[in-house]
Design goal:
Strand order of the largest sheet: 1-2-3
Largest sheet: 3 strands, mixed
Strand content: 5-15%
Oligomer: single chain
Structural class: alpha+beta
């Protein structure tokens, strides 16, 4: 057994601190492998626990975040959608403004969003700039915006779709065949 026979990262590190005469000792190599494996597991557990303190990296800690923020837990939803709901709730604190709506909407969509107000009509519009079609988490976004907007304002949502002028002589038939129908105007 030589130095490279130690599979554990931290075991190899521990072994490197030992005097050179232990390089051929199978007992010391086995000892460092066992201790290193335990240390690898400890570091992995510590890193995983630390990930739960941040919405963007939380996994099993999402339930706690949802409980803390008063959001019903739905484990059937993909983790990214659950994170988007949490991030939006965290961003959604403060006085109602276009910037607040923009921050909340971008937390769900992940792309650029424009918010325009039509004060004479008592409404505002959320325009998805970068996203083609309807964002997958739209219902959660609508609920979040309903929660932060004043009751007297109506909200409209504007989506971008692929139009013939966008794809004519730009995309091949194979590329068109790969594109989901919900990205096209009138698509399902």
């Amino acid at each position: 057994m030589n130095k490279t026979a130690i599979g554990s990262l931290r075991g190899r590190e521990l072994f490197s601190y030992l005097p050179a005469y232990y390089e051929t000792s199978r007992v010391m190599q086995s000892d460092m492998e066992a201790k290193g494996s335990e240390m690898d597991a400890l570091y992995q557990a510590l890193n995983e626990a630390a990930d739960q303190f941040f919405v963007r990296t939380a996994t099993w800690g999402l339930d706690r975040w949802e409980e803390e923020l008063g959001i019903p837990t739905d484990r059937a939803k993909p983790m990214e959608q659950r994170r988007a709901v949490l991030e939006s709730k965290l961003r959604g604190a403060g006085t109602f403004s276009g910037r607040l709506v923009k921050n909340v909407a971008e937390a769900y969509d992940g792309g650029a969003v424009e918010v325009t107000f039509q004060p004479g009509e008592w409404r505002f519009t959320v325009q998805f700039v970068d996203t083609l079609g309807i964002p997958p988490n739209l219902e959660d976004l609508k609920a979040a915006i309903e929660e932060i907007k004043p009751a007297h304002l109506a909200v409209d949502y504007a989506f971008n779709y692929l139009l013939i002028r966008d794809i004519h002589e730009v995309m091949t038939l194979d590329e068109l065949g790969q594109m989901p129908l919900n990205k096209f105007a009138g698509g399902a």
